[in-house]
Amino acid sequence: MALSARALYDFVSENPGEISVVENELLTLFSEDVVDGWLEGTNSRGESGLFPASYVEILSSDKGLSVQGNGEAYHSSYAAGTEYSYQRSAQQGDTSTESTPTRGYPTYSYHSTSQGSDEDWDDDWDEGPAAANQPGGVPGKGGSALASSSSSAYPASPRRGSTQQSRSSATVGRNLNRFSTFVKSGGEAFVLGEASGIVREEDKICVVMGQFGPEWQENPRPFTCSIDDPTKQTKFKGMKSYMSYGLTPSHTQIQVNRRYKHFDWLYARLVERFPVISVPHLPEKQATGRFEEDFISKRRKGLIWWMNHMTTHPVLSRCDVFQHFLTCSSNDEKAWKQGKRKAERDCLVGANFFLTIIPPAIPLDLQDVESKVDGFKTFAKKMDESLAQVNVTLGEFARKQVTGFRKEYQRVGQAFQLLGQAFELDQQEYSLKLNQAMAFTAQAYEAVGDYFVDQPRQDLEPVSDLLAIYQGHLANFPDIIHVQKGALTKAKESQRHADEKDGSAGINERCNIISCATLAEMQHFHRTRVRDFKAQMQHYLQQQIAFYQRITGKLEEALHMYDQA
Amino acid sequence: MALSARALYDFVSENPGEISVVENELLTLFSEDVVDGWLEGTNSRGESGLFPASYVEILSSDKGLSVQGNGEAYHSSYAAGTEYSYQRSAQQGDTSTESTPTRGYPTYSYHSTSQGSDEDWDDDWDEGPAAANQPGGVPGKGGSALASSSSSAYPASPRRGSTQQSRSSATVGRNLNRFSTFVKSGGEAFVLGEASGIVREEDKICVVMGQFGPEWQENPRPFTCSIDDPTKQTKFKGMKSYMSYGLTPSHTQIQVNRRYKHFDWLYARLVERFPVISVPHLPEKQATGRFEEDFISKRRKGLIWWMNHMTTHPVLSRCDVFQHFLTCSSNDEKAWKQGKRKAERDCLVGANFFLTIIPPAIPLDLQDVESKVDGFKTFAKKMDESLAQVNVTLGEFARKQVTGFRKEYQRVGQAFQLLGQAFELDQQEYSLKLNQAMAFTAQAYEAVGDYFVDQPRQDLEPVSDLLAIYQGHLANFPDIIHVQKGALTKAKESQRHADEKDGSAGINERCNIISCATLAEMQHFHRTRVRDFKAQMQHYLQQQIAFYQRITGKLEEALHMYDQA
């Protein structure tokens, strides 16, 4: 059997001697010897040349070794749309100095470069040196920003001319995909043992073994945080205006005022700080073509959901930057800037984040982990698809209620009104009460028509808000799964070479840490999902029941009008 | 001022020397002398010649007399469609030996010539000599039948070569419109004093002065009559089959079985017997393109409404032919035929019917009568228009519920089902109850969709049935109004000539009888309308309330599923 490989990722040749390969493409290898991270072979179009060894998996060799899980090349995303949006954001060559990711979800899309009319981005506090100091370990960043990244946690690719081999293992090479989340998240660096840093006791994140597998250790001091209606603030003697949200955390009971840009900044910190945690997406910054009031109300609802997901996450709720955001006095500019700078200089981001995770004493069975992660992937894909469908259906249902249903009930009202008007031409005493009752019935049906217009705001919109935050989470999980899968691949690779070289124990240990964190996050997702959907379905049904009771009540009023007729 | 006249009806010239006139057309008269019932003049198209004097009203004369109510030429129908259908049925040259009228209402149209599959029209009892013996005093009959009519109550027109003048008044001539309801009903003959017959005490119909004007004296022995589900009967050893309805009048408590053709025959008797009474239309004989069961159910509902209107009418409920229909044993063929022949030979039909009416002691004020009749005409026109609109709207509403509404609710159900199916991929213990609740919610919305499909049968269809019977009544009233208007015109005409000739007192008296009967029938219509619409609107609203309560109940069931989730 010929020596062959399957491409794990797309690779586009940029120099003479290189050949392009497409994900899943079968390649014939000239040799399985990796030279400076490159392999030589022929692609399916008959072109021969070099391609990065880490972009492929070797399918069979004369030594009889094969990579476990052949033919199961995983994708960085279960939703084609998400993948597409990543690529698009990279292609757009985002020149923003902000390093926030573009998650590409239509409902909760995140646009750090848009300049909202009610926001002012010229504040000096946004332009500190910290901005250039941010690691690039977030998806959606362009290649140029990546190339200039000076973060030590960030691995250099062979393309960049580095000939340096991994310190920990010569046989387990680096992933050459410069856009791989596994690489960018720092997951690879951590697995390869390149992460180092001092972890304070309070930064340690424990994963405990729960009834249903690994779980984040619960926050011993749970709290909530209310968000008031935003108020319009002005500065520069009224030249500039912005909306300010009053936040009151339950554990301090002290209100702080934050602007949307503060949420935005916090979000960016959290995303770079926690590679395998699904940071809830912020509601869209500005919706075009909407009335301001509707938009402000919708964004506040989105922020309430966001805050709810933040405060109930055992890890996110306790982290320094979030606590700083929630508790730093709005009037203490100095304290705010200190906390801001501290967060932006945090060393425990990217690869180092994984150093903070304390796994349960007994390592997980990797086979079991893989099966669970695959199960979650299937689940998430299906849920993502059904959310999209439910969103469309409920949106259409709301639209029909506001237009069609209303029209039908009002037409019935108008028909009764017309008949009532004919009846009113007869003014004999015994007709009068019937005439009144008919007129009332006509009004009742007109009113019911109006009920239908109001209703979606009561029941369907809250469901839609919930779906949006979950669509955001589901858009996060492909990356999280990608990191875990990357770690698992490394662990398997290291096991394959375990006979020859040592170092596999360390890799397994670190892979276990990533797996524990991933499964804990998935568990958290499920628990939150059950909690949220239970509450929201109850709310929806309660509102629906109240709605039909309201109709019933109106019709009963109309019915009683006939008692005297 | 030139001597002129306004045409009251269309007249089409058939012989040289005659000119055609169109209703409302202004004519210039050569002279106001009526020769053998004809006037001479010029129409608006400049044609000069003869036209029937009774087809026009003289607008001004050199004697300074003018007909009261000038410029208020009444129409035989307020609904153009009704008029049209009359003409059409005459033009069709109906060759049926049945002399039943074609009322032309789409919902309850009456087709005596159609051969329904479940009916057998070859029965010998339908072909007795009585059929040829029936007077032609019903609308919709062709001219040929009219010409061959031997009924003494029927006035000969001048067109037919008769030179005989009215016995009672030389100045009040006959109406020459051979299709005028006033003429055909016998109203004219009665007003002119040509009706004669012996009225038994039990045939007398009293009009009493009630709180709101003339009323039919109430039936001192009111009763109701139930109609069972029809059963299929066969005869000729199963060769022929028909549906038989079991009728049980409350005053006999003895069930009789009647076929649709018996209703049909009864209806024809009633129409010829009672010119100014609105005989309720029978439900359509056979609807094409419907499932038999649906049709049978619909016709039974229509017959129930019909029976309700019959038994609650003070005059119709008491008349011999109806009592014969309700009480003659289904097994006594001989008694049935006797009663049948008696009814068909009834002398008190047409003009003689009016002999049976006993008016209140004090004659009505004719001005007041005219104003009331005009008011009713306006009312009936408006009600007729609104019923048509309500019918369309409710039909559309029903259609939307069965299609659109159902689809929307089922789509919501399907969306929840889809989401539930995604959730079911997670089989952790804490998810199971939510999964069950989601599945139940999905089913609940599917069920609500089905409720919408069932609902119109419960609430909208009964309303539609009611509208149909009232559309039938409203189609009757133009003829009733026409008879009264004709009588009023005669009375006015006679008053005009009162100085010259006598006989006006008798005409006034007879006009008063027709007016009393007309107003009593209108009063009865209003009372019945208030009763029926009150009951039906209550039923509709009760059904609607029950419907929304049913939805509420289903959603509450779904809500409780989340209690344990």
TrEMBL record, chains A, B:
Species lineage: Eukaryota, Metazoa, Chordata, Craniata, Vertebrata
List of residues binding a 1,2-diacyl-sn-glycero-3-phospho-(1D-myo-inositol-4,5-bisphosphate): R259, K261, R299
Membrane topology: Peripheral membrane protein
Organism of provenance: Pygocentrus nattereri
GO terms under cellular component: cytoplasmic vesicle membrane; plasma membrane
Family named by the database record: Belongs to the sorting nexin family.
SH3 domain ranges (all copies): 1-61
Domain PX: 223-333
GO function term, MF aspect, one: phosphatidylinositol binding
Biased composition, class Low complexity, residue ranges: 144-162
Gene3D superfamilies named in the record: Arfaptin homology (AH) domain/BAR domain, Phox-like domain, SH3 Domains
Gene Ontology terms: biological process: cleavage furrow formation; endocytosis; endosomal transport; mitotic cell cycle; plasma membrane tubulation; protein transport
Compositional bias ranges of the Acidic residues kind: 117-127
Primary location class: membrane
One Pfam family this sequence matches: SH3_9
Biased composition (Polar residues): 85-102, 163-172
Name of the protein in its database record: Sorting nexin
Domain of life from the UniProt record: Eukaryota
Compartment(s) of residence: Cytoplasmic vesicle membrane
PANTHER family the UniProt entry points to: SORTING NEXIN
UniProt keyword annotations, A-Z: Cell cycle, Cell division, Cytoplasmic vesicle, Endocytosis, Membrane, Mitosis, Protein transport, SH3 domain, Transport
Region (Disordered): 85-172
